[in-house]
Specification:
This protein is α+β, with helices and mostly antiparallel strands. Helices cover about 35% and strands about 20% of the residues. The chain is globular and about 85 Å long.
Length: about 650
């Protein structure tokens, strides 16, 4: 929210998992609205769609009002989000985000409100079930810091919007004061007061709503004074971002050349600030004065300044997250993770995480790397079932490869003999030595691709993957790279300082046994890990699980399995003491049926608690089990894990 920008772009959300013909349903609705409005006879070549829907008349008439002299500016970002049929998880997740902790002036959770004082997020989510889309806005008055609260302004804006659109709106909002620019998040259902799809003209979203907001904030605070206008312009002179002054300079330049005499500034203040900005650009290497009054402007001025502004915001974010975590790191150790660079890989402790883009919900994470540097990485959008990074956990980040994954190569080889058809039986025929869990992992991969529309599951349980399956897999990965540019692996859910003397198989143990352990930096997190490894090594010696021999440390055979077994035995004893149930161990070849109760986070990893009438089992946990909490599940134990199913004829892995 650092930049107050007159440019505006409406962003459409991801279409989701519908068939292609369903993905165009909203556009068909738009065309119907166009026909009702009598615009169906326009030539296609001149039709832009900006006036389709409610509010188009106001969008046209109000287009220039927001820039009138004395008007206070308001930034409005808008996004139309598709909602998958029967899936309100994304709606629920977004409302949780806008109400998260630390967004109010006193650091409390956000207060969700509507036309009344408080709004019920659960009820709003339930009403949204069946909606095809919803509108999400971020409204940020430039002078919002002068308002004691934003609620009256937002409610006035929504009442005006209802008048302009000719319908009552079902909406909720929450105000955020955790940035330098207080702003409001507004969510509007995609239904009008008659229960029909709500279609809002793009011109109204782009121009009309911003003009209405500018009217309201100007009425509340009074017209912008000359002193305020001058102060804001002067702040832009040295700003390391793209500003109004830069836009004016580019507008007046011809083929990259700016002749000041040909474009004189009528206002002395504007002339002074423009000259000051040109001198700033000159120092930044983005402009050069060839002769007095004649300037050559960098052809990539806007792109470079926008990147510079983004980098400045990232550095501020890193500094804030480190300060919140109480970690001191030199600014010279700051680095930005680039997933496009070959061989890039990060391992480190999560210092902080949040949203790089609040509107599109693209997330970032700040890692205190074992290489001694502090890294900022954009991790993209998470699915509604995915958990965001946990502070103080240890992560590994890897770029998504542009090459086919090995799992896809295997599916392609199995399907090649059957003209592009895959099944579990065909896989076992292809390789009789594979385990059930290994085959199940390939089925889960195909299910994920089916939801992306890349493959088809047949009625007999076979999969039609196509003879061009590898090409489809690459397209699927490309789509995910745009949404999630990195793969995230949790190395430890526990804090580094808790690992040296922890029961269980920890990340430190895996490092001690690794043939090629992580390269540790001499300072920062790298130095902390080095100390933790020495302490862990000594602890293992004291426990009789390692010994020093001829200047080297020899570790017990099956060290990781021994440590894991000890932790599971202790955890099981605690559960037995509380519940009176007996603990049973499951082995390869066993079949486990019971009720999945909950997930346990241990030093050795995450485990699922599955209860039966008189006993229980602790088995490796998978995220898919959360869909079955409190329900009957059946697991087939293989050599590489457990293949789960829930209920009758319904596979969790499928």
């Amino acid at each position: 929210m650092q930049e107050i920008d007159d440019e505006f772009e409406v962003k459409l959300g991801r279409i989701g998992n519908r068939k292609a013909k369903k993905a165009t349903s909203y556009l068909r609705r738009v065309r119907q609205e166009a026909q009702k409005a009598g615009m169906g006879s326009r030539r296609a070549s001149s039709f832009t769609g900006g006036r389709i829907g409610r509010g188009h008349a106001h969008g046209t008439t109000l287009a220039g009002r927001a820039r009138m002299a004395g008007r206070r500016r308001v930034v409005i970002k808008a996004r139309i989000v598709r909602i998958k049929a029967g899936d309100t998880g994304a709606v629920r997740a977004h409302l949780r985000y806008v109400q998260r902790d630390g967004v109010t002036r006193d650091g409390q959770p956000g207060d969700l409100y509507g036309a009344s004082d408080r709004a019920d997020g659960k009820a709003f989510t339930e009403r949204s079930d069946g909606d095809r889309h919803q509108f999400r806005f971020i409204v940020a008055p430039e002078d919002s810091a002068q308002l004691s609260e934003l609620k009256p302004f937002v409610r006035d804006l929504m009442r005006q919007m209802e008048q302009d659109l000719g319908t009552k709106l079902d909406w909720v909002a929450a105000d955020h004061f955790n940035t330098g620019h207080p702003h409001s998040h507004i969510v509007i259902r995609g239904k009008d007061d008659q229960g029909n799809d709500l279609v809002i003209a793009r011109d109204y979203i782009t121009h009309g709503l911003r003009a209405r907001a500018a009217d309201l904030i100007t009425r509340e605070l009074g017209p912008e004074t000359e002193i305020e206008a001058v102060r804001k312009l002067q702040q832009e002179v040295t700003a390391e971002r793209f500003t109004r002054l830069d836009r004016a300079i580019l507008r007046d330049a011809t083929d990259g050349g700016l002749e000041l005499a040909a474009k004189p500034a009528r206002d002395p203040v504007w002339h002074a600030t423009r000259m000051g900005r040109l001198r700033t650009l000159e120092r930044m290497g983005l402009a050069e004065e060839n002769t007095p009054g004649n300037w050559q402007i960098d052809a990539e001025l806007e792109a470079k300044l926008r990147r510079l502004g983004e980098r400045g915001d990232i550095i501020k974010t890193m500094h804030r997250e480190l300060a919140t975590a109480g970690i001191a790191r030199a600014a010279g150790t700051y680095a930005i993770f680039d997933p496009e660079r070959a061989g890039q890989r990060l391992v480190g402790r999560v210092v902080g995480e949040g949203f790089a883009d609040e509107l599109s919900e693209r997330r970032y994470v700040v890692l205190d790397g074992v290489d001694g540097q502090t890294h900022y990485a954009e991790i993209g959008m998470l699915a509604s079932t995915e958990e965001p990074p946990v502070r103080n956990s240890l992560l590994e980040l890897r770029p998504r490869s542009a090459e086919p994954r090995e799992i896809d190569r295997t599916i392609a080889r199995v399907a090649a003999a059957r003209q592009g058809v895959y099944s579990e039986r065909l896989h076992r025929d292809y390789d009789p030595q594979v385990s059930g869990e290994y085959v199940a992992s390939h089925v889960r991969r195909l299910e994920a691709m089916r939801q992306g529309g890349m493959v088809e599951r047949l009625a007999d349980g076979h999969w039609k993957v196509g003879e061009d399956y590898l090409d489809r897999a690459l397209r699927y990965e490309a789509l995910h790279r745009s949404r999630q540019p990195v793969r995230i692996s949790v190395l430890s859910w526990q804090r580094l300082e808790d690992l040296p003397q922890a029961a269980g198989a920890t990340w430190l143990d895996r490092q001690l046994l690794a043939k090629t352990p992580e390269t540790l930096g001499p300072t920062g997190m790298g130095a902390e890990v080095e100390v933790a490894l020495r302490t862990r090594r000594q602890w293992l010696i004291e426990q009789g699980l390692a010994r020093e021999q001829e200047g080297q440390v020899r570790y017990a055979r099956d060290l990781l399995r021994t440590l894991e077994g000890r932790e599971l035995a202790r955890t099981a004893a605690d559960i037995s003491a509380r519940t009176g149930l007996e603990h049973i161990e499951v082995k390869a070849g066993d079949k486990l049926t019971g009720v999945y109760r909950r997930m346990l986070t241990l030093n050795s990893g995450r485990y699922a608690l599955v209860e039966r009438s008189h006993d229980f089992a602790l088995v490796p946990w998978r995220p898919v089990l959360e869909r079955a909490r409190g329900q009957m599940v059946t697991g087939s134990v293989g050599g590489e894990g457990i293949s789960w199913s829930i209920g009758i004829k319904r596979g969790l892995g499928l």
